[in-house]
Design a protein that fits this description.
The structure holds two protein chains of two kinds. Chain A is an alpha/beta fold. Chain A contains five helices and five strands. Chain A has helices spanning 18-31, 82-85, 112-121, 128-138, 144-160; strands at 6-13, 35-40, 50-58, 71-76, 89-96. Chain B is 42% helix and 17% strand. The longest helix of chain B is centred in the middle third of the chain and has 24 residues, at 202-225. The chains are: A alpha/beta, B alpha/beta.
Chain lengths: 171, 552
Amino acid sequence: MPHRVTNVVFAGLGGQGVIKASDVLADAAFRAGHDVKKAEIHGMSQRGGSVTSDVRFGPSVHSPMIPDGHADFLVVLAPTQVENNVHQLRKEGVLFPPDLVPEEKLRNKRSLNVALLGALSTHLSIAEEHWQAAIASALPERLLQVNLEAFEAGRAAERARAPGKARHAHP
Amino acid sequence: METVATKAPARGLWSGDEAVALAALDGGVALGTGYPGTPSTEILEAFSELGGRAQWAPNEKVALEVGLGAAFAGARVLVTMKHVGVNVAADPLFTAAYTGVDGALVLVSADDPGMASSQNEQDNRRYAVAAGVPMLEPASSQEAYDFTLSAFELSARWKIPVILRMTTRVCHSKSVVVRRPPVPPAPPPNFVRDIRGRVMVPAFARPAHLKLRKKLAEIQAWSETAPLNVVHEASPALGIVTAGISFQHVREAAPEASVMKLGVVYPLPIEALRRFAAGVERCVVVEEGDPVIADAMLAAGIPVEGKPEMFRFGELSVARVRRILARDESPEPPAAKAKPPELCDACPYHPVYGALQRMGCIVAGDIGCYTLGVMEPYQAMDTCVAMGASVGVGLGLRHVLPEEQARKVVSVIGDSTFIHSGLSGLVEMVYNPPATGHVLLVLDNGTTAMTGQQEHPGTGRTMAHDATGHVSIEGMARAAGVTNVDVVDPVKDPKGFEELLTRRLASNDLSVIVSRRPCILAAADIRHFEKVNAEKAAAASPCAACGSDDAP
């Protein structure tokens, strides 16, 4: 699909790192040479409410918002937010639920957002160097190592997920 | 070392707000001022971060007035606010259109269609028409950057304030921005007397109004061929007139259509619109909010289709644009379920709302995080209308309610909102006290919390968190002549707080209770700023040089 726009929705609750995760993906895609748009709502949602962020990249992106049912990937950080957002996936779209990367695989459970990005990265043709640069630019140095490890843990978890099984939201 | 060049490379992924800040930097803006409000807040924060001179004003009216003064002196000035902030600044705005400016003044109005974080979804394109000031509207971060520079050019050329109208999706979406070479700086500010031009007594305001209308006619003629309005020619079967973020949805929903995309939304290039409409079989106006462009075209006798009324409400999207084009007015799918925001677990407002709920108070509320006291489990708020309105609304209720109910009325306002526009209400309370007295509860968490923890005059720190003059809330209340002024910590002594409130409600006095406890999200930062500023003050004191303890 070289000329298609790739659509990724991130969802979770305020304070979980939804916006941070979408920032990293947008930056990595930008570094890889894509046109990128990213949309979200700030403000009241910061107070523990639902947060979603849309990232779209490809040769040319128009609307920053992903139409319902057009997300290729849905990355969810809070178990309660899966049901609310699953309608955003297209038929063959891939869901990354919060339990994809078990907590015990993470040195810091707050790195779940970056771990799920690792899982997502196995489906995207964005070079490793761009991911690393984007993660390094988004996080303070003291959190870099733990997050790079989380990214790897996410990649491993996704590779371990049986192909074709539990990957698609609408089998 | 981090410099502007590393913070802001020549090409980057920026939000619309950040792009405006970048353009202010590259456009030689001498002063940025405003009041925080979603979705506009990040503009001045980014400008300050990039090294620009930016400051928070106590409210939008003062911000515009400070900006106007600087522009009278010849400076380029950026003034930012959310859409409802323009209501507060409207008084100076309408007359600033008459006086005009000497340097350049751009006012950013950040509108919030769909009300992601606002109390209404007013369409501020109406303000451009009503005040008679040009308005530009970007559709992406690149345009936010380019149109900010264009707005300054326009303002300097016609010596008139210009509004840059943004919407939530443009403010907060990130997309690619390529910077332009910096604009040469404005000449150094210098006061040149112009009594007839700036003293708006009727004798001078009458010719100033004529002059304004002449400027607008010239700007309208310019708008007809301005490169900010772009025609994308495609199929003649369908032509779409659009502006702002709706343009992006249109390109995706109807790639086959011819599109006239307006960058100048006032004054409209009406003859160019007439030609575009005449060149297509069907012409539809796709615009978010009110039918401003559609009505203007219809009034000019141009046959166009507006959108069905149901699309006046909320944001547009690709799906909704498809519906507009298909004239599909069938019910839309309900919005996805979402968890509403709530007070943080450790928020110092919990004991306050617990007490208000238990005591069955009638709460005239205000705008900020504490508005969340209306949610479960407290539901302890009865009104919320506008910044500062809690005081006046509470007084009005007290004036007419039967005594038993009047005694239960409490006005609840945050620290930043109190400074913004609660002060006038405080004066009203002293001047026209209700028979049962009144209780004004100021929830002082030491920050403008809801918009992301901005400083304000009550914190005694500038936008950049440096020490500056401190406005005391309790000091203002005492100076105004309020009988009882108490400062309490509701977390440390919740029982004492409830007892005090009970006592004050039972009396016929005027009372202000300042409930002071830092926002749980800001507390660590506040401690850090206080420490840094104390160290700076110690280093700057003359006694530091010799290490003597004999400070006077």
